[in-house]
Amino acid sequence: MDTLSDYIQWMGEYPISMTGFRDADALVLCALSYIDMSPVFSRGTEECRVRDCREMIESGQLRVMITGGDEGYPELLAHAAVSHRFGDLRMGGYTDVFRPDPPLQFSALCFHDDTDFSFLAFRGTDNTLAGWKEDFMISIHSTEAQELALRCAEEQITPGRRWYMGGQSKGSNLALYAACLMSDAKWEAVERLYLLDGPGLCPEVLDKSLLGRIDCKTTQIVPQFCVVGKLFAPIISDTRIIRSSASGFLQHALISWGIDHGEPALCEAHSAESLLINRAVDEWISNMSPSDRVVFIDELFDALAAGGADTLDELGSGGRAGIEAIIRRLGESSEVTRRTLSDLPKLAVKHNLEKLRGVLSTGMDAILKKRDEDAPAEA
Length: 379
Prior knowledge:
CATH topology of the largest domain: Rossmann fold
Mean pLDDT: 82
Strand order of the largest sheet: 1-2-3-4-5-6-7-8-11
Oligomer: single chain
Low-confidence stretches: 355-364
Distance between the termini: 61 Å
CATH architecture of the largest domain: 3-Layer(aba) Sandwich
Number of domains: 2
Number of helices: 17
Structural class: alpha/beta
Largest sheet: 9 strands, mixed
Strand content: 15-25%
CATH class of the largest domain: Alpha Beta
Number of strands: 11
Helix content: 40-55%
Radius of gyration: 21 Å
């Protein structure tokens, strides 16, 4: 099974105008959207070619804004920069907005060739706590990032070009939201929408009947072990399951997705364990009212931040004191949050998720123990 970097090297000499746009190209461009291009565009540059970033790539000036490390992404961008297929593409319309409170994480980037091809890519979740908190808010109401995605699509997509649009993870949700609500004239200009393992739209956010308008021009791709892409999953006729070089939850990483003879490496069905998790998560969400979800999300992320972290990678950097601060804050949380956390191990048992049950039970026991230890001192 080949990687995305292998695909770039294999197809690198052939411009999109020669071969036509391929599904694997969408995976590459959505992966490139995770590169922080602020150093390129902060100097007043409105547009540049991918190949112009080569020196900044080699010097490490361009960061990868993604959870779990950047393994594979610098190599991917380096191969893209030296290829004709991707290196000759012009990048523009770059937007990058971040705010910790209220949480907002949004980024989008357009790719154009010198004929009439264009692709609008929405970045998925980075590794900031604010970005992940905003992801959770998707299960309650529309978010500012979704509104920015709609505005971006309306501003960037212009008639006269063959537009493609997509994103991975939260970027998929943003692309979906924009596609459902953009004007008919703008949607008419879109040749294909790519939804790559992202959550759908809950009923409180958008009427799912709107999916009828976009279905015929949409391709949805999810990994064999799929959890994120099953949350409020949109029913799309062209839905495919892709193989990954990773295992378990790590299959969510776009960089791990496989290529077979220049096309996404597909398989027939999801893994049995991921289906069990899907059922447990669905039951967990359905048992919570929208108001309880708000309380739980606010208190959970307030607790995570209590340890001094701004990103997921920093959660353990505060050492024992940081972990104790998180546990203490969770122990002081409302009955809604404590009940929700207590229910998670029970759901894991019910759905035969023994490994997950062990992790959740250990974490909850620590929270309750810390709360009981602190109670006499506080009295």
